[in-house]
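Exercise: predict the structure of this protein bound to adenosine-5'-triphosphate.
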Amino acid sequence: MRTVTDPGERGLAVLEAENITLTYRSSGRGVENASLRVEAGEIFGLMGPNGSGKSTLLRVLTTAMVPDSGSLRVCGMDALKDRRRVRARLGIMVDRPTHYGDLSGWANAYFFARAYGLKEKKAEAALAELFEHFDLDDYRDDRAKTYSYGMSKKLALIEAMAHGPDLLLLDEPSLGLDYTSQLAYQRKVRELAAAGAAVLIASNQVDEMESLCDRVAFLHRGRIAAEGRPQELVESLRGLKRIEATLRNPVEYGPLAEVAGVRRVVPEGRDLVVHTEDRPGIVAAVVNAVVECGGDIVDLHVRRPNLEDVYVKLTGEALTDE
Ligand SMILES: Nc1ncnc2c1ncn2[C@@H]1O[C@H](COP(=O)(O)OP(=O)(O)OP(=O)(O)O)[C@@H](O)[C@H]1O
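Solution:
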């Protein structure tokens, strides 16, 4: 019979975080009352703009930091008390992975795999499979400091996965990966989840998160603002259009919000994102209003709403600033 410490079966909670609060003394910021649960076989996404608390929450979930309050259970164990045993069940990729630059990529990954308790032969077999999967075979003996950004991210993914963790915690894993590598990463994450791992990914790659995650949660100023299945969250915006206008130069856009059918206007990096009702003539009305504000539109896209728009609707703020 399976026990709680033996996941590998959907429905069993691998990660249970309740009311996690951590406030940095120097800034008074951090995360507040964050609760989440990830089951075996589930891929869970954590989304939120810069500074919303994703990395802080991950630091707690990886047991790198102890929260001021709240409880954390991993595979049924108290992760705040039993950190050593819990860490052995985790696979972690931090947002800025570092390696031993003078060692080969292979030696770095081998070191990790052995530290996680894999026997020599098992470590070699797991790494051989992963180096091939991530197309790093030809570079396995090169020193890690010669690796490109994307290659060292793939090496960090290998290090997080090789020992077959029950809970995989990944911070911005696919940022900087090219098309083929991104595909390889997604395939591997799906494969591990299908084999029973629980996966938690902090990322703002909206399209990837929408297709990869079973559930996502949005962090806003240290608090979880909403949680749900991506498709259902996006579906809740049915009837909404997303118009993205890139302007040559930013202008005051106040009058835009007065156009009939415009629900909200949010700057996103250099773009203006306008949420409107889906009615005939609305795009022309928005373009006219931008021009009347003095805006010179150099690029315009009308798209279906995505997870980014869910966040905008929830908080009135943009998820990314790109
Ligand atoms: N070491 C620290 N000391 C003080 N305040 C911090 C520290 N690290 C983060 N913060 C603050 O805590 C809040 C959450 O930061 P955190 O790095 O968790 O956000 P994030 O969502 O991961 O952002 P990003 O996407 O930029 O990595 C921010 O307001 C940040 O300024």
